[in-house]
Structures are given as structure tokens and as C-alpha cells.
Design goal:
By secondary structure, this protein is an all-alpha fold. It contains 3 helices and no strands.
Length: 71
């Protein structure tokens, strides 16, 4: 649900996680965003779906291991 995605996002942004934990949390967040976004799209909630797809894409870009940054 959206609540789980938002909670995961808060945990990542809190900066209380180690680098490894943050990378793992981001991987889970991306997966949850895609699952939730697909459910929204399937039910005709296109704007909400697009929000979650964009969030997943943002973390895909920002979590590139070669970039040296987590977010």
C-alpha cells in the first residue's frame, strides 16, 4: 500500500541506516513502487501510478552504485 511505500521512504531519508542498509531499502522501495504503481494503473488511477513509477525511476537513477551517492 501507499503507506508502506511512504514508511520505507521515510526510513531511507532519515539517514539512520548504514550505506548497505540504505541500498537494500532503496531496492525494496523501488520494487514496492513498481508493484503499487502497476496496481494503480490496472485500476485506472493513472496519475497515482505515474507518481510511483517516477519515484521508482528517481531511486533507480540516484542509487546507481557507480555514482557514489545513495540519494
Amino acid at each position: 500500500s501507499a503507506r508502506i511505500v511512504e514508511f520505507s521512504l521515510q526510513q531511507i531519508q532519515s539517514k539512520k541506516l548504514s550505506s548497505e542498509q540504505a541500498h537494500q531499502a532503496i531496492a525494496v522501495l523501488k520494487k514496492k513502487c513498481m508493484i503499487y504503481g502497476n496496481g494503480c494503473a490496472k485500476r485506472g488511477r493513472k496519475e497515482e501510478a505515474e507518481h510511483y513509477f517516477e519515484l521508482a525511476a528517481k531511486y533507480e537513477k540516484d542509487n546507481n552504485p557507480g555514482s557514489g551517492q545513495i540519494f
